[in-house]
């Protein structure tokens, strides 16, 4: 048995009669007090209800002996002890066994025979509560570890996905677009060399198709990963995206950039805000039937804030947590990405009253989970 220090002695005074209500109140006291002492270790005892130190000091000694010398046994304080040891009341003491040893003592004052069942009951109760606390702590720890692992994996997935998009986008731009441009030029030259009008028309039709394909490829490359975001940063990429969006969907859009110039932020912050802007504006085009959209991007001391507001039909935000919420992947995705950067994400929407999405990202790095993010950029 390792050396144990008893820091508190637990005493509960009882009446001489066996009162069932007493047992209940004993249990209640133990439960209430134990909640304050959930983090019990082998070096600390349990406070349950203690009288003044002087009054318990002698029993303290006896209990300390019980804690340091094995095997642990219950012990009682008799009438003899009571008269011999000043301030000590008769009682019965039971060790609280937990883990590898004894972590405290339950002492009940009264005639030893009467006090014994209560002391044993209280000790059993404390032991059960300690077990349950330990189990719960273990579960909480396991859950936390799992959540951390999930964030790390999510981080990794996002980084790899972004890197892949960047690669494909570059390839579309550098290879496919160049090849299409050569085809377009070649077809124009060819059209000038054929004799028949019919053939020339066919070649020009093909050229128009190639021009259209080039536009599509360009659009796809920008959607995948705008080079502007990497080259000139968030503000420039946002301005460009909004300009194209407004033209494509014919929705009037106001952009306010406050307290921001063309400064650069960490790549993961820039790409996260850009992806949220993309998703939120796509949602507006898909679901909102809005006639006015306002986007605000601002820096406020230690954080970047993005607000996307529309005057469309809105929606009941309960759908996000209710049954079938796994279909709201766009919004959940925004949420997850923000959480990885220790940011805040709010949706304020009601049917018929438009939608406001607010995102706040701290500029300083916070979590362990963030450490791997952005490496792939
Ligand atoms: N700006 C908006 N206006 C109205 N409804 C919206 C808006 N944004 C999202 N919603 C609603 O929230 C749902 C979930 O959005 P999302 O998670 O992006 O999934 P998805 O776009 O694939 O349906 C949408 O189906 C739509 O009903
Ligand atoms: Mg969506």
UniProtKB/TrEMBL annotation:
One of its GO terms (molecular function) is ATP binding. It catalyses: ATP + protein L-histidine = ADP + protein N-phospho-L-histidine. It is an enzyme of class 2 (transferase). Its EC number is 2.7.13.3. InterPro entries: Diacid_rec (IPR008599), HATPase_C_sf (IPR036890), HATPase_dom (IPR003594), His_kinase_dom (IPR005467), Sensor_HK_TwoCompSys (IPR050482), Sig_transdc_His_kin_sub3_dim/P (IPR011712). One of its GO terms (cellular component) is membrane. Residues 171-365 form the Histidine kinase domain. It comes from the Bacteria. Keywords: ATP-binding, Kinase, Nucleotide-binding, Phosphoprotein, Transferase, Two-component regulatory system. Pfam families: Diacid_rec, HATPase_c, HisKA_3. PANTHER family: NITRATE/NITRITE SENSOR PROTEIN NARX-RELATED, NITRATE_NITRITE SENSOR PROTEIN NARQ. This is histidine kinase. It comes from Sporomusa malonica.
């Amino acid at each position: 048995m390792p050396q144990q220090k008893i820091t508190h002695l637990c005493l509960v005074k009882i009446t001489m009669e066996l009162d069932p209500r007493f047992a209940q109140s004993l249990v209640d006291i133990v439960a209430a007090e134990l909640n304050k002492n959930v983090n019990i270790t082998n070096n600390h005892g349990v406070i349950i209800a203690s009288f003044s130190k002087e009054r318990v000091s002698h029993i303290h000694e006896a209990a300390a002996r019980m804690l340091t010398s094995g095997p642990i046994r219950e012990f009682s304080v008799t009438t003899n002890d009571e008269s011999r040891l000043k301030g000590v009341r008769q009682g019965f003491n039971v060790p609280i066994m937990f883990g590898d040893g004894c972590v405290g003592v339950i002492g009940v004052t009264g005639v030893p025979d009467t006090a014994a069942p209560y002391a044993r009951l209280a000790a059993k109760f404390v032991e059960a509560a300690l077990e349950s606390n330990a189990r719960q702590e273990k579960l909480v720890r396991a859950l936390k570890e799992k959540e951390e692992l999930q964030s790390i994996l999510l981080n990794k997935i996002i980084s790899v996905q972004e890197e892949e998009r960047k690669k494909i986008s570059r390839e579309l731009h550098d290879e496919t677009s160049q090849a299409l441009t050569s085809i377009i030029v070649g077809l124009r030259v060819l059209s000038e060399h054929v004799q028949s009008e019919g053939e020339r028309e066919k070649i020009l039709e093909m050229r128009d198709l190639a021009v259209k394909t080039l536009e599509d490829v360009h659009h796809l490359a920008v959607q995948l990963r705008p080079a502007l975001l990497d080259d000139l940063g968030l503000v420039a990429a946002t301005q460009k995206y909004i300009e194209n969006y407004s033209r494509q969907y014919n929705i009037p859009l106001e952009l306010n950039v406050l307290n921001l110039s063309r400064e650069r932020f960490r790549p993961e912050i820039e790409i996260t805000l850009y992806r949220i802007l993309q998703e939120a504006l796509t949602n507006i085009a898909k679901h909102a039937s809005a006639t006015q959209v306002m986007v605000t991007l601002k820096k406020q001391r230690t954080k970047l804030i993005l607000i996307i507001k529309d005057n469309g039909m809105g929606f009941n935000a309960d759908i996000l947590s209710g049954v079938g919420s796994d279909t709201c992947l766009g919004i959940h995705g925004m949420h997850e990405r923000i959480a990885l950067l220790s940011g805040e994400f709010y949706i304020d929407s009601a049917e018929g009253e438009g939608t406001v999405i607010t995102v706040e990202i701290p500029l300083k790095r916070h979590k362990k989970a963030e450490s791997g993010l952005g490496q792939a950029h």
